[in-house]
Write a structure and sequence with these properties.
Structural class: alpha/beta
Distance between the termini: 42 Å
Number of helices: 6
Number of strands: 9
CATH class: Alpha Beta
CATH architecture: 3-Layer(aba) Sandwich
Strand content: 25-35%
Helix content: 25-40%
Largest sheet: 7 strands, mixed
Oligomer: single chain
Length: about 220
């Protein structure tokens, strides 16, 4: 990672501050040992994990007040894991996952920056059938419906890792794939509602144009 530039920022949630070390911008790249390349991650997509995206901020703000007592929670495609860091500060039972090989390193550093307890992490793909994650009461994710061909993989992965009675919360910026995903989730026994994020203009440059989708079973 010697060739990448980093930046540090503090994200405010009312009385909570979350400190984040991320990539300086979306032009950063470092894969000297070709670990990411072997996983199918190109130089163009490599830096995407290391940014704080609006959908991720919306999810984190939603998680700041969401009822999480006694819930075992999984964040999928966590990237900078802002929501996991918020939930960790709330002493929630949170586990994070992502496919990118650098996510765990950034997560460990950001946990240290916030003087928080360790967040369990597992690097896994949505096509993996032999991970050690187990099942959860609540699964969360932001901007995970970005490729149409990932929809069936994601639905199957979520279904494999949720309890019989569970919730899934997805923040979608409006890529056009959520309708197909929701129909597929219905075939798996989930009902869903979708709604706009409240007061997102207070922490984004403008109101979030996407939506929050909540599935339950």
């Amino acid at each position: 990672m010697s060739s990448v530039r980093l930046k540090y920022q503090t994200i405010e949630f009312s009385s909570m501050d979350i400190h984040i070390r991320s990539l300086r911008d979306s032009q950063e790249f470092s894969d000297d040992e070709k670990i990411a390349e072997k996983l199918g991650i190109s130089s163009a997509t490599w830096p995407l994990f290391g940014q704080l995206w609006d959908a991720g901020k919306v999810l984190a703000n939603y998680m700041y007040t969401y009822e999480v007592k006694n819930k075992k929670i999984l964040e999928i495609g966590c990237g900078m894991a802002l929501s996991s860091l918020v939930l960790n500060e709330r002493l929630a039972n949170i586990t994070a996952t992502d496919y990118h090989p650098e996510v765990e390193n950034f997560l460990k550093e950001n946990v240290k920056l916030n003087n928080s307890k360790k967040i369990p992490f597992e690097r896994t793909a949505w096509t993996d059938k032999n991970d050690s994650l187990g099942t959860f009461d609540l699964v969360i994710g932001s901007d995970v419906l970005y490729e149409r061909w990932h929809i069936e993989e994601l639905a199957a992965f979520i279904n494999m890792h949720v309890k019989e009675h569970c919730e899934i919360i997805i923040v979608d910026p409006g890529r056009g794939n959520h309708a197909k995903f929701s129909k597929l989730m219905e075939t798996l026994g989930f009902s869903f509602i979708q709604f706009k994020a409240k007061n997102s203009e207070k922490y984004l440059k403008e109101a979030f144009k996407g939506q929050i989708i909540k599935y339950s079973r």
